[in-house]
């Protein structure tokens, strides 16, 4: 049965990725009527969090798709969307024929389409696939065949040590699949505790829908070795560190104090004269930083390349130092249940203020006049709208102008132990190079995996065009791929998935309709700055005189004015 929508909305949004969700929420928050659709059967699009079975299914479906095999309908794509075939050139020459031929396919007869003079009906074709080179691999032992004719004494012995067996029982694919506590991200992120996302969540009061855990440590791979060390982030960490000498500790402490002073006094330039545009490595050398300190500051604190201009590197350092100690020793937070909770939190607030949501549904066509979309067609319903916001993966190719595409190589690793022997809640690791690789480790402590399981993410700008070729060398540094016990202190790798994700700047990516706004896919960044800035830019274009995501009241602050009297009624 077709869901019934209202006849008119101020804004229609397709895709529940982070950027689209922020725009939808910002508009709903100030009283605009918002219809938010997603052809998938889950929230978040590429920003989602999956259970392990969902992730494995997602990966295998992309493998099948790349192989040209027909995929079974799992409800994640509206079936009517497939009825459209791209007829871009033919339709432009025969617009009236397009209306007659296509209208019946979108479930609405021509007589029911309310067309004014000059309006035309255009089908909304399938979008583009942003995922490629997907390679899931399981390293777990095969399931043991069902045991038969067990000796009774053996059965009794197994019962006596049942608890011990539970603790030492090896992980199998079936065992991982039956676990429920999963939240595996396709696009993992960390949040600077004083970064743009935390500030937005707090100022809008969306933080009430989320919980976070501090990333407990930052790791660094010692130059020339595979050994991982904990990077000291606080005064106590620095003086307890066993890798740095007393002189190095003092140099590092003075430098951190300088960064704190720069945060309080942005105009302070003492000691930086002449270095502002010079490579940061030159500044560090001039201040007597040893090779070890240079490595730590560049790769684990500032997280910049040696050739980065000093002024730019100092901005990154100030960001790191100012966020350190707010909620934990490191500057970073990770959401409980996975990063997919963040777009859902925005969607939740949008719904609170009247936004309408429907999964497994996209639009089937648009009614436009010249370069303006006047209404959309969803199933058998025609809906007027003032603006349309759509994720890139849900925009027909025929509407896009050529753009330079960047590929990000990503990998998800599931292991039975931490990359560095510990039971800590999370780690961040950066491998330097022409294409730096970021590694984020999380575990059951953040409620994203069953107890005893660690989920490790790695990503970088692709330099070979294939995620496995880019990231496999790092995986071999971190994990034991062989069956059996852990070797050389490396955790046993249970399952992995390599994949490439395309990204492109979607500003002005389409010139077909002036009230169509396309959001960009996730980019290669650690926090959410780019997505927030893009969402704010779209909102400011739509509603230039309105406040972007003002604070939402708490439940106990909401009152309703009585219609019969002047008495206010507190909901509590």
Structure overview:
Among the domains are: 8-51 and 85-123 and 339-402 and 505-542, FAD/NAD(P)-binding domain (3-Layer(bba) Sandwich), CATH 3.50.50; 231-329, Orthogonal Bundle (Guanine Nucleotide Dissociation Inhibitor, domain 1), CATH 1.10.405. It is of the alpha+beta class and 572 residues long. The model is unreliable at 70-105, 143-158, 160-166 and 560-572 (pLDDT under 50). It has helices at 18-29, 52-66, 88-93, 95-102, 152-160, 162-168, 173-178, 196-204, 235-240, 246-264, 280-286, 291-301, 310-323, 341-352, 467-478, 529-542; strands at residues 8-14, 34-38, 49-50, 119-123, 131-138, 184-185, 191-192, 212-214, 217-221, 228-230, 332-335, 356-359, 365-369, 372-378, 381-391, 406-415, 426-431, 437-443, 454-461, 493-503, 516-519, 559-561, 568-570. Strands 1, 2, 4, 12, 13, 14, 15 and 21 form an 8-stranded mixed sheet that branches. An 8-stranded mixed sheet has the order 5-20-16-19-18-17-9-10, sandwiched between helices. The radius of gyration is 27 Å and the shape is globular. It is built from 16 helices and 23 strands. Helix 1 packs parallel to helix 14 (341-352), helix 1 (18-29) crosses helix 16 and helix 10 (246-264) crosses helix 13 (310-323).
Detail the topology: elements first, then pairings:
Blueprint: E1 8-14, H1 18-29, E2 34-38, E3 49-50, H2 52-66, H3 88-93, H4 95-102, E4 119-123, E5 131-138, H5 152-160, H6 162-168, H7 173-178, E6 184-185, E7 191-192, H8 196-204, E8 212-214, E9 217-221, E10 228-230, H9 235-240, H10 246-264, H11 280-286, H12 291-301, H13 310-323, E11 332-335, H14 341-352, E12 356-359, E13 365-369, E14 372-378, E15 381-391, E16 406-415, E17 426-431, E18 437-443, E19 454-461, H15 467-478, E20 493-503, E21 516-519, H16 529-542, E22 559-561, E23 568-570
Parallel strand pairs: 1-2, 1-15, 2-12, 9-17, 15-21
Antiparallel strand pairs: 3-6, 4-13, 5-20, 7-11, 8-11, 9-10, 13-14, 14-15, 16-19, 16-20, 17-18, 18-19, 22-23
Helix pairs in contact: 1-14, 1-16, 10-13
